[in-house]
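Hello,

Following up on my earlier ticket. Below are the two sequence lines again, exactly as submitted.
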Amino acid sequence: MSMAKTKNLCILLLRLLAFGVTLSAAIAMATTHEKVNIFMIEFEAKYSDSPAMKYFVIANALASVYGLLVPFVPSESVLGQLVLVMDLVFTMLLTSSTSAALAIAYVGKRGNSQAGWLPICSQVPKYCKHASGALAAGFIGTIIYMAIVLCSIHMALNPLLVQKA
Amino acid sequence: MSMAKTKNLCILLLRLLAFGVTLSAAIAMATTHEKVNIFMIEFEAKYSDSPAMKYFVIANALASVYGLLVPFVPSESVLGQLVLVMDLVFTMLLTSSTSAALAIAYVGKRGNSQAGWLPICSQVPKYCKHASGALAAGFIGTIIYMAIVLCSIHMALNPLLVQKA
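Thanks for your patience. The regenerated structure is below:
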C-alpha cells in the first residue's frame, strides 16, 4: 500500500473517530439534567439554561452530521477541494464552543467570588459530572479535528505524495 | 507586480493589522479596572478576577509577539515551512480565548438566573464598556488570523502561483 493511501485511510479513521466523539458529546450534554429541591424550591439544571452549553450542543451536533457526510464527498469534485476549508471551519467551531462551555463550567465548579457568582456543582453534582464527561468528549473531538486539518495540510503541501497514490 | 507578490504583500498587511489589533486587545483588557463602593464595601473589577479574561490577555499578548516576529522569518528556512502550522495554532488560541472571554462577559452582562449568577455590568459599567471594546478587538484579531490561514492555504495549494513570483 502506498504512503498516500495509508494517509487517506488514517484520515478516514480519524473522521470516524471524530464523528463518534462529537456525537457522544452532543448527546451527553443534551441529555444531562438534574432536579433538586433547595429550600422547598424545585430547581432543574439542564444544558439549555446556559447559552454557552446550547452552543456546545449545536456545534457538536453540526460537526457530527458533517463528519458523517464528508467521507462520501468525491475528492475530485469542487466540493472535495473545499473539504480542507470546511475542516478548518468545523475545527474553529468546535474550538470556540468547547472553550466557551469550559469557561462557564469552570464558573459552575469554582464560582467567582469577585463577581459574587456561587458554584452550583455542590447542589447538582450528577449534572456537573455528566457535563464534565460531555466537555471531555468535546475537547477530544476538537483535538481530532486539529489532527485531521494538520494531516490534510501536510498532504496538500506534498502533492507528489498524493499523485503517487 | 506578479499575482504571488501581490498576495504576499496582502498577507504582510494582514499580519501588521493583526499585530495592532491583538496588541490593543491585550492592553485594553489588561488595563481595564473600576473601583466601586457597594454597601460600604469597596469592590474593584479587573481582568485578573476571571481566569477566562487572564487567558484572553495572555493569548492576545502571545499572538502580538508572534505577529511582530513572523515577518522576519525567511520563507525558505525550516521555520518558514512551519509558519502555516504556527498560524493555525495561533488562530486556534485566539478563537479559544475570545470564545471563553465572551462566554464569561455574557454572564457578566446578562447574568444567569437559573444558576443564581447576577449581572455585574450595572455595578461596574465603565469596566464592562472597556472590556467589550477589548473583546471586539480580540474578535477582529481572530477573523484576521483566519483570513491569513485561508490565504496561506490557498497559496500552498497553488504552487504554480508561488513559483511564478
